[in-house]
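Subject: Sanity check before I submit

Could someone independently write out the structure tokens for this chain? I want to compare against mine line by line before I put it in a report. The sequence has 379 residues.
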Amino acid sequence: MTSRERVEMTLRHEEPDCVPIDVWGSASRVNTDLYLETAKLLGIDTDKTKVLIRPGKDTMYEDYAFADALDSDFRHINIKEAKNYTPYTDSEGRIIDEWGIGRSIVGRFPTIVLHPLRTATMEELEAWQTPDPKDPGRYEGLRELAKYYYEETDKYVTACSANSGQVFDVCQYVRGAEEFFEDLYEDEDFARLLIKKINDYLIELNLEYLDHIGPYIQWLEFTSDFGSQHSSFISTQMFRDYFKDAYTELFAACKKKCPHIKIFLHSCGDVHDLIEEFIDCGVDIMNPIQPNADNMDSAELKKRYGDRVVFHGAIDIQQAIFGSDEDVKNEVKRAIRSVAPGGGFILSPANHIQEGTPPENVIALYRYAREFGKYPINC
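---
Independent answer below. Compare away.
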């Protein structure tokens, strides 16, 4: 059975020969230093195989020689940087992106320290412009790469998230989290206009993305973090009041453009009370079902939603991945036992695998996934 056939069966909630496994997706990358250490153990010359896709991030590269050594079933397309905008460093040392958002390095990570609309009035918001979704630099070479992956490999081809975060996230980036949450309670008109302007941009961005790669990809990924470790950031009712229509409109526009594609949503943390809403919005694949977050028991979620959504992820990267080989083995077996029966499960880390993880454990994770992921499940 080919990788593509394996994933297609899984998406139909059927049992293929084994559980599909994924690396290098929107939420299944490997920390740069850890990737280089792991690749060395695998005997991969990364000078010849690594591709820079996220400059300045802590997961900068993808490498499909690495993915193939782990027996991943996927190839992923990544949108590129804008050609007509160059980030710059302001007088206070902040790196300013095309949204006007400023970041400084805190520890090892770029952290938002400047929100361009923090003090904006309604009139200033009305005049504010989002970036150019049609900037040609974003799409250079993507059609050819997607076509190659689709026609010349047997891998399942997806497109990673066109933007880092969706409307819920970007509103916080440009306005500030505290200010935006206050808007939701105290300035509904401002909040709704900000949501509309950003969602309109995201729709146009994703439709342009699909213009270039649509015939060759099979699902489109979105990242939007609604959960903390212990709860969702907003109530179900607030999601319905402010965000459900926006996400439904975004996903529907993409499916109208390319009816064959599936919608993948990454949302970290405890989102148990929003999964039903996400499904209503049009989500087909739910990631990461973070196992150590409250109320995110994998087996219970499978029982409750497993006939209506495919689960992707489920491997703990907060504790088990840092432990012994036996810890990794037990975690893989737990995830497979909880979510794989009946199909509808793709195994991957529950987010990017972080520095401090033993590189041997990265290899073990995927090795055990193949060993114990054979159908019928018996682990």
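---
OP: Matches mine. For the report I'm noting this point. The radius of gyration is 20 Å.
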